[in-house]
Amino acid sequence: MTSTVTVKDTAQVHEDAVLGEGTTVWELAQVREGAVLGAGCIVGRGAYVGSGVRIGANVKLQNYALVYEPAVLGDGVFVGPAAVLTNDEFPRSVDPEGRLKRGADWEPVAVVVEEGASLGARSVCVAPVRVGRWALVAAGAVVTRDVPAYALVAGVPARRIGWVGRAGVRLVEEEGESGGGVAWRCPQTDQRYVERDGVLTEA
Predict the structure, then answer these.
(1) Which residues neighbour 102 within 8 Å (Cβ) at sequence distance 6 or greater?
(2) pTM
(3) What is the pLDDT of residues 107-147, one digit of tens each?
(4) What is the 3-state secondary structure (H, E, C) of 127-194?
(5) Domain locations in the chain?
(6) C-alpha span between 90 and 94 (Å, rounded)
(7) Phi, psi of 125, rounded to the nearest 5 degrees
(8) Which of 19, 67, 105, 143 would be a feasible disulfide site paired with 23, CB 3.0-4.6 Å?
């Protein structure tokens, strides 16, 4: 850890964890062994980062967010308050014979959240699942399948209800077509996007 890292008194950061410059870990948060966080991250009060989790730069984990290993978060990801990234595809406390399961008795699976994506408050990502670049998962949504880049998803289970741009604002459809696709525009930045076959790209 560098001298620019801030770890509050009641936080627990394992000596084998790596925290990038300018990262802050707030009260009661826990960062487990082998976790790697990039520069400028914020780990909110009571948040949990599992062993070996990989987190990019400028990531915000809000209060009581739970990020279980082996999750991977890209640069600029936002994880809202009390959001959960799971890691057990077939969760059981005991095996079929009733014996308590240990670490070697199951295979953890990952949630991958790509650059700039946001997970709303109390949303749940059920591993294995991937959330695409700049996507937005609404508060309280339960993600059970991959989310395309720039998609706005909501509900239980989460389904796409629109598109968002890099600013996180819902895109508006433009009249006419753009090179055989549907044209979309961000009302905040005026950035244009094109949708073809359920895939959105920047124009």
Answers:
(1) none
(2) 0.94
(3) 999 999 999 999 999 999 999 999 999 999 999 999 999 99
(4) CCEEECCCCEECCCCEECCCECCCEEEECCCCEEEEEECCCCCECEEEEEEECCEEEEECCCCCCEEE
(5) 6-164, 165-203
(6) 11
(7) -105, 115
(8) 19
